[in-house]
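PH domain-containing protein
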Amino acid sequence: MEICGTIDIKVPAKGRKFGSWKAWKSQWCEVLKNENRMIINIGPSKGNVTSCLAVPNNAIIYRIKSRTKAYGFGIFYAGQKEQQPCIFLAGKSETESQKWMKSIRDVLKPPTTNIKTTNEYTISIIDNEHSKAAGLTGLYGTLSVKSEEILVTDPHTGKIKVTLHWTQIQCSYLPLPAVSDDLHRVCTIRTNSKFKAGDGDLELYCAEADELHNELLSCPRPLPRIATTPLPPTPKDRQTRYDHWTAADSPSTTPPRRLLESRRMSRSEGDLKKFVMQHSAPTLRSAGSQQHLVLVPRCNDLGQKVPIGVYEYIPNVL
């Protein structure tokens, strides 16, 4: 005997010939291994078997959606386009249902005795619409957290079933369960638009869900690839502000003072004249040197001359 106990059972419509009830009913259930198939004995109490069901070894087990049972799961015949159910069962919590599911899976296909290493966790997906859209119905196995990706391998063959890249994962969290037995037993991975089924939640049952969650948070992820373009060539050093001047632009002689006094000037030139009258007199009387007033066309930072009438005052010491 592999597993036994009291559990809620519902017989599909096409298989009710071996059961007299049409809704969920608490029954004693025994799961046995018999050569190339599995035997499920059902009865109202232990030792009182009233029904027997043979299940082939290629049967598939996954969670179902029920209006009255939050933790229901079914055993389905494989190899058919539309999988026909053998029987439905439901525990009182996610932990109880997953315990039955694991035991039945081990009876159908015994796992290999591989020792788990660091960053490996035994998981079973809690099927929902998002996992079905991604083609992950009934997924279970060993989850490995790696720096490049997340892998789920088959516990019987060791082959990779699913590969999740970090770029497809938005975050992970531990949901608050409705039953205390499920505390720290469910870890939810939220996928983003890069996942094949888009945005959604993948709910994983794991006895070490808190450790799995911490591993997902602390695992170093690869840096995102950034498309780069070659840097532009280094521009030549800008020429000095006087490089563009010609001999005609740069005055070689000092403008006569009477020309400045007699010529009608613009407002900017008048301001310049006032500035010259206030500052040039003390400078010209300094002993030991002869100074001249040089008016130079003003340029901006790009070496371009500003409009006529704006000059710079540069003392020319001879």
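thats it. Helices lie at 94-108, 129-133, 209-218, 257-262, 267-284. The chain has five helices and 16 strands. bye
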